[in-house]
């Protein structure tokens, strides 16, 4: 039922927006656009993140304003730019599809009178979008032995010189902090407004919710699993390619670009990665890609 609801635009007030509008399975449950559109056809604030392995997160939305998946989904329902529908008011349009009557009775023993059960069903479906069957996973488990020399170099750089794994902790890569996995990493990295790298983006991230100066420009560490499927990158979709992302970090993030960032959590100095090393990092990150049929 959750899968069916995930794709149903009747959940939104205007009947035109569904979860799948922004989270497309064939695109790693992202959308490959810089900013998707709201229910009025205007750009949303941030780039669409993947939903894969969401069940293993401890923080939701790029600004961490929800602590549970249920709350995150509820926020989409009540957001006037998205579904714009009351969580406590069930869409009668849904029940015009007789299939739902059976599904609701099977799942909850009754036909729902509000969207609470709808949100639970969608959450249950999203929680199944997990998979650890990438080339990386199969090699690390010893099921395959086909990493190229470039991919091996990229992995070692990821874990070492390039410092990627200091935020993108293996194996989840989504900032969920080991060994207890009860909190989520959040960082100030100084993402620019445009790919020309001339001006700091004005989205303050965590600060909008928590109002602490050190949170200005802070965002949750995103997953890099299936990253080859989910371009463009960063919270504002500013970079079209992984090569651009690696170069941004190689230069020292926003601080390295010359932005005034009092609380940047990245080292300001350059990583001094060679072109060969940067290419190897990209090659490794592509080994974290799973085919849709493997997982879904």
TrEMBL record:
GO molecular function, one term: heme binding
SUPFAM superfamilies: Cytochrome c
Keyword Oxidoreductase: yes
One Pfam family of this chain: CCP_MauG
Co-factor remark: Binds 2 heme groups.
Post-translational modification: Binds 2 heme groups per subunit.
Co-factor requirement: heme
GO cellular component terms listed in the entry, alphabetical order: periplasmic space
Chain residues that bind heme c 1: 19, 22-23
Residue ranges annotated for the Cytochrome c domain, each copy included: 1-130, 149-289
EC number, as in UniProt: 1.11.1.5
Keywords: Heme, Iron, Metal-binding, Oxidoreductase, Periplasm, Peroxidase, Signal
Principal subcellular localisation of the protein: periplasm
Binding site for heme c 2: 164, 167-168
Domain of life, per lineage: Bacteria
Subcellular location: Periplasm
The protein's name: Cytochrome-c peroxidase
């Amino acid at each position: 039922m959750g899968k069916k609801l995930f794709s149903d635009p009747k959940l939104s007030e205007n009947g035109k927006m569904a979860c799948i509008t922004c989270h497309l399975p064939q695109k790693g449950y992202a959308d490959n656009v810089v900013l998707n559109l709201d229910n009025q056809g205007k750009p949303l604030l941030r780039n669409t993140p993947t939903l894969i392995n969401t069940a293993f997160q401890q923080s939701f939305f790029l600004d961490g304003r929800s602590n549970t998946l249920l709350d995150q989904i509820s926020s989409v329902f009540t957001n006037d730019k998205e579904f714009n529908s009351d969580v406590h008011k069930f869409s009668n349009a849904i029940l015009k599809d007789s299939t739902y009557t059976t599904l609701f009775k099977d799942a909850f023993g009754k036909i729902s009178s509000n969207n609470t059960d709808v949100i639970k069903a969608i959450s249950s479906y999203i929680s199944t979008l997990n998979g650890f069957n990438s080339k990386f996973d199969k090699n690390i488990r010893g099921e395959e032995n086909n990493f190229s020399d470039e991919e091996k170099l990229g992995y070692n750089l990821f874990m070492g010189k390039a410092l990627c794994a200091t935020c993108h902790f293996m194996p989840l890569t989504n900032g969920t902090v080991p060994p207890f996995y009860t909190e989520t990493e959040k960082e100030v990295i100084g993402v620019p407004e445009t790919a020309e790298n001339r001006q700091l983006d004005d989205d303050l991230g965590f600060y909008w919710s928590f109002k602490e100066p050190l949170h200005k420009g802070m965002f949750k560490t995103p997953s890099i699993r299936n990253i080859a499927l989910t371009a463009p990158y960063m919270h504002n979709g500013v970079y079209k390619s992984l090569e651009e992302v690696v170069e941004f970090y190689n230069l020292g993030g926003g601080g390295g670009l010359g932005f005034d960032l009092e609380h940047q959590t990245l080292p300001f100095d350059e990583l001094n990665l060679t072109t060969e090393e940067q290419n190897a990092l990209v090659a490794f990150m592509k080994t974290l890609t799973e085919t849709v049929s493997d997982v879904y």
